Structure prediction request, 537 residues.
Amino acid sequence: MSPKVAIAQINSTVGDLSGNRERIAEFVRKAAALGADIVLTPELSLTGYPPEDLLLQHSFHSSTQLELDRLKNELADLDNVFVLVGHHLIKGGLCYNACSILVNGTIIGTYFKQELPNYTVFDEKRYFAPGNEPLVFKVKGVCFGIGICEDVWFPLPPQKARAAGADVMLVMNSSPYHMGKMHQRPVIVRQNVIGQGMSAIYANLVGGQDELVFDGCSFAMNTDGKVCVQLKQCEEDLEIVSFDNKQPVNGRMEEHPTVESEVYRALVLGVRDYVTKNGFPGVIIGLSGGVDSALVLAIAVDALGPEKVRAVMMPSPYTSDISRIDASDMAGRLKVAYDEIPISDCFSSFLSTLAPQFNKLPEDSTEENLQARIRGTLLMALSNKFGSIVLTTGNKSEMAVGYCTLYGDMAGGFAVIKDIYKTLVYRLCHYRNSISDVIPERMLTRAPTAELKPNQFDQDTLPPYEVLDTIVRMFMEENRSVGEIVKNGYNTTVVERIVRLMRINEYKRRQAPIGIRITPRGFGRDWRCPITSKYRD
Prediction:
């Protein structure tokens, strides 16, 4: 009889040790009822990922060990079900990223992660020591080796597992999402695991953790390099993988979503988990009548339901009637609480108060920023009074060049589309409307404008977003120099201006709320440029 392996695609919460234990036990019992011999959970499934500096607290170590013991005892009644649990372990004064095998109330072996990532969003070398030994165990005539995430991005750990007799590599992962990542992972597994003559079972974490989203998309792959089982994206999932002659059998195959669909799902998951895991009763959004706040509103409703979302329109003297009409229209379509709080009187009061100081100086961006800061103050007051978190609506294009107001439209607790280029904002809006028509068409067709002065449009001061987004992406995500970007056909003056704006606005981004990482490099934990720097290429 061939073994059956359950992929338990679980949403763990960092630090919720007892809750994670209960979640693991629930999935294990479901899998056992379906005939599973082995249950594979994600990387650090017991602690959540990444636990960061919790790993420096002594009490966290003892609490984790206590919950691991509880889980071992709780599952002792399951006969010969091998449960692979991710956790950290202190041994010999060193901390390891570990996987323990629980069966019949005992731990029969513990594997230590060998390859520790220390790039982009990862800094595991800050916390963990590397292991160097494989761990192989046999179930119903098949030998299984263990890998933890980064281990299969390099050839040596799979080679060691194969040399120790492994037929199948069981890989637990907490692999964070960025666009296209779900297509990249099978390529790596095909290269480093299948290339060793082993098949692979790949279990990935799902859920939002601060600015990271883990998208699941777990899979099984046979020795021909074919993905034969594919789990859901951005949802918890459980699937039994059967084997025939040491090969995973073809099973359920969830379809790969489009780019717009995968990004939108990741944003919804990121908002839902940030709000619910942190205990906020709901969210507040400043709705402007523009496309960015429209997208954030749609995401928030899809993540939380309309009853937990409040939209606030704050018209100034420069807000057009169509902006107010469209904002009210969209709020009605989504059935969210909607308020209009005019800021004209507040704006006039500020100008009167500052008049002696300004001494009849000509108007400039100061007056524009005042309007944004009044709105930020009002939204934060509502947040303080009702406990809901303010979702900011600035996109990556704006954040890159500082087209945003510190303590104004940047004020809030979570920046939903902080890593979404303006061009992608439009694509996501069209995608959402393909599901149901919630964003008024005029929002998608009118020229982008902040409406902070008469006849203002974004392209008065910025190049077309198609140009801006490409320059930002090449400089930020591809590390291209100004000269290299220019060689790709872009105007030297425009490129130099955009790069200069990116550099001088780093101080703003350091004070911005965190936001969901969607691209291979977002303004967050994997962008660490100095604020004070004289370097110019």
